[in-house]
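INTERNAL AUDIT FORM
Audit reference: QA-55
Scope: verify that the stored structure record matches its stored sequence.
Auditor: D.O.
Record contents follow.
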Amino acid sequence: MPRRWTTGECWLCERTAVRVLWLGPVQWDGVGHAPLYACEPCLRRLEAKHLAALIRGGGSTPRRRSWARADCWLWCERIDVPTLLLGVVERAGQEAALTVCDSCIRHLEDKVRATLEYVPA
């Protein structure tokens, strides 16, 4: 399936009116789904983190629901902090954990809530 770029808000850097790519649906607490979009610079940053994780042996990702020390992949990009596994990214058959710290999780929750509460006229 080809990637389709559109103009909108990047959920990672929060720039608006930029070319973004849909990464998939986000669901929080089973309430509903919201579309997760990212701009090209943020996608490249995620790709670089993914490749770095693979180089460090990030394959065979553990499926954890508890906090563990890792690098945050989102806004703060802090290194070796308590994180939760948000998902898994894949490239060429290799997987790497997409881990997120507490403050970035709260930020993402706020965006999901705002999107789910918004009802277009």
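Auditor finding: record pair retrieved intact. Helices lie at 40-55, 102-117.
Action required: none
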